[in-house]
Each structure stands twice: as structure tokens, then as C-alpha cells.
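Quick sanity check, Acyltransferase:
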Amino acid sequence: MVQSRAGQYGVMLFFMLSGFLMSYLYIGKSFDKSNIMSYVTARIGKVVPLYLVIVFSSYLLLSAGVKGVYEISDIHELISHVFFIYGESVLWSIAPEMHFYFLFVGLWLLAIWRPAFIYVLIAIVLSILYFSNFPRPHGSFLGLPYDFHVFRSLPYFLVGVALGMNYKSLKLPVYLKSNWFVAALLLIPLMYPEISPVNSSARMKMWLSYEVLFVMSFVFFSVVFLVPDSNILLANKVGDFLGRVSYSLYLLHMPIIVQLNKVEMAIEHKLVCFIVFSLMAAYLSERFIERPAIKLIRRRSPSN
């Protein structure tokens, strides 16, 4: 239970970082063909190729009777994954991320006209989501399963966008920056429902709680804005490597867990094997799938 819920906090930070980077990199740039193609190429190149490799591999392997990747068992589920309207296991988070890519184009256009309106829009959207109880439309249409998590994850993306818009202009005094702010990361394990000191029902809501959004926003703000860039815990070769393979690690770790759970061995040995195999698989995936795919897409981009 701890493991399945704990990973959600990492996804929250992922959505927040996604909004932050899009806002930081593109808002302020002209909305022209070159910049749009650069945006589309970067977003598609990073997320889509590996995702599609895993989705089709899961479907083909399961069709051949090989279990242990992702349970994409029929053509309807395959189509739903390809069109980002449904996601098995951790693949659910890729769909809202793709929805955010389209949404950001509208925010980018709004920023060209009246950037301050973005803050008003964010406040309105957050209010609507709260009073509508963070809807999650799901079901089946023409045999195609759909499950839209976008409305529950949208607040994190929007907060990231707002923070990204201010990263360059917000001049914090030197005395406010400190390596001690990295300790804000310790708030994340304190939010795990099983060990949280919070006694109210809010600790179990997670995506339905703005209290969680506030804490995760504080963690993100502390690490990005208040911790010096030279912090040894965040700026080192190990961290750079993990950041580079993080996407592959995220998509591949679950199948590795499934396979290891089939093996009889001590839990300590499973943990070591999980770390080693996950890092190896993530490195090979980043080296031979992610990186070549990004280069190929960029090379074929009309802007080049």
C-alpha cells in the first residue's frame, strides 16, 4: 500500500516540473513556426517514442502469451493507449502529460496577448476543479476504454506554469538562499498516508486535496528557487545520470518489479536486484531508444 501510493507524489512533482519547464522555456518567445516546431519536436521526441515501443511491445508479447510487461490485452486497449485516453498501471500518467502539451499551446498564445491573464485563468480553473470535486471521466466508448486523469493532475501542471513564468524575473535576496532548504524533500515521506502525522481524511485524498498541492508546491519552490545551484545533493554526476534516465526508469521499473516478484528470494536481495536491473534497463533504453529517437525527430523536423 505504501509503495503504490508513495509513487503518486513523484508523479505530482513530474507534472509540476513539466509545467515549469514549458513555461520557463517558451513563454516570452514569439509564437512563430520555428518556435512551435521546436516545442513540438522536443515534447514528442522525449515522451512518445519510448512510450509507443513499450505499449506495442506489451500488446504483442501478451498476444504471444508472454506476461509481465503491461496488461494491454486487446486491440481496443491498444488503440486507447495510442490515442492517450487510457493508461495501464503507471502508463496512466502519460495521457494527461500529452493533454498538457496541447493545453500549453493555448497558454502560450494567451501569454503573447496578455500574460497576466494566465494567473487569473489558473485561479478560475483551480476553483472550478475544487467545486466540481476534481472529475475523472472514465468508462468505455465503442469498446474503447477511457480514463481521463487530466482534471485531477491539472492543478500541479498549472502551478508549475505559474512558477516557471516567474523564475527569471523573481529576484530573491542572497540571504534567503540556503542549502538547508533541500530538507523540504523530507516532507514528501511525511505525506505517506501510513506514516503521516495528519489525522484528518485529507491525508487519504492525495489528488483531491489542495493541502497536498500546497505542500508539494512548497517542496518544488524550495528546491528550485531557494536551494543554491551548487548544492552537492542536487548538482552531481549521479543526479545528472538519474535525471537523464528518469523517464525510462519510470516506464520500465514496474515490469521489473512484476518479474522479480515471481522469483523466490529474500526481500533484501530483491531490492538490490530491482535497483541494478532498473538502472541497467533505463540506461540501455535511454541510450538506444530515447536518444536516437530524439535525434531522428529533430533531423526530420521542418524547422531544420
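Posting the structure with no commentary besides this: The mean pLDDT is 91.
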